[in-house]
Amino acid sequence: IQTIAANLNLDPSDSEHMKTILSYASHWDAWKWCFWLPACLAVCGALWLYVGLRDDPRSVGLPELPGTHTGKSDAKGGKTPSRGKFLKAMVWTNRWIWTLCIANIFVYVMRMGILDWGPKFLTEARNMSIEDAAWSVGAFEIFAIIGTIFAGWATDHIFHGKAHRMCFVCMALAVVFMGIFIMFPGLPIIVSTLFLAMAGFFIYGPQALIGIASANHATKEASATANGLAGIFGYFGSFVSAIGIGIVADRWGWNMVFYIIIAVGILGALTFISMWMAPRDGYARSNKFYEEQEAIDGLHEGESHESK
Asked: How confident is the model at residue 75 (pLDDT cuts 50, 70, 90)?
């Protein structure tokens, strides 16, 4: 109890604070399971992926998905451009990939800001017990699972595969529910938790769909590079969230933290809406790239014949 009181900057002899101290003491040493359980689940997931995952439909005797032809020549002895040229065309100079990367920063700042700092905010600013705070953040995650599935369904059935449009809708609605959550602190715990959970319902959609949109725009031949690039930007957002929110909370209080999270969500929504008219994938871009390369190769071959 003395250690917990010291960590919380509380006086253990103060009877008003004893309830808080004892509440934290009841969870003493339980924090280790917060690491053991995810680690075990990660190992099980890795084994499942290693055993069950396949490279593409052809590796299990299935035909390629319609509309995913990249224009790459399959003719025996046919020339293909270098991998570097293809990545440059489909990833490094593809403005839709970079737009998704920038949007991923805002998504991760908003998502991790709530997930990492939510329990501390709820206990300090909303005076919840640690149990109520844990259940509130747990509801946030449960709704996030449902919201991710819904976002995938809506992308296919409402937006016809244009994931960036669903991302905009999700970010906008996440901002709305976060705004209600922070603007009305006097709501009952259940209602307040519901609004926080609805924010989770919508914020996890873009987190999942950005990877899909990146893969679609880079095509199957460069999807890994595009996803890796988007992931780097996402983890940069996590870093900013982890460091920045703590500094803001110490200097300007928790309300300012959530005002900033809402502002970040608005920036994310604006980033997504900037690509509203983008195509659903990059296969037309890939076909054009290969056609241009074939024309260039044909021109070079003609010049070499003339020189001979």
From this structure: very low
Average pLDDT, stretch 88-101?
96
Q: How far is CA 19 from CA 9, 38, 119, 123, 237, in A?
A: 14, 30, 18, 13, 36
d(CA 275, CA 169): 13
> Is 3.40.50.1000 the CATH number for 83-282?
no
Amino acid 46: pLDDT: 96
pLDDT, tens only, 226-260: 999 999 999 999 999 988 888 998 899 888 988 99
Euclidean distance between CA atoms 61 and 59, whole angstroms: 6
CB-count exposure of residue 302 (10 Å: 0-12, 13-18, 19+): exposed
Residue 276, burial from CB neighbour count under 10 angstroms (0-12, 13-18, 19+): exposed
pLDDT digits (tens, 9 = 90+) for 156-169: 999 999 999 999 99
Q: What is the DSSP string of 37-62?
A: HHHHHHHHHHHHHHHH--SSGGGGT-
In the predicted structure, residue 19 carries a pLDDT above the cut 60? yes
In the chain, domain spans: 1-55, 83-282
Residues in CB range of 211: below 8 A, 6 or more apart: 227, 230, 231
Which residue type occupies 17? H
Q: How far is CA 100 from CA 42, 84, 95, 282, in A?
A: 27, 21, 9, 14
The DSSP secondary-structure symbol of 65 reads P
Return the half-sphere exposure (C-beta side, CA atoms, 13 A cut-off) of residue 91.
20
Residue 267: the pLDDT is 97
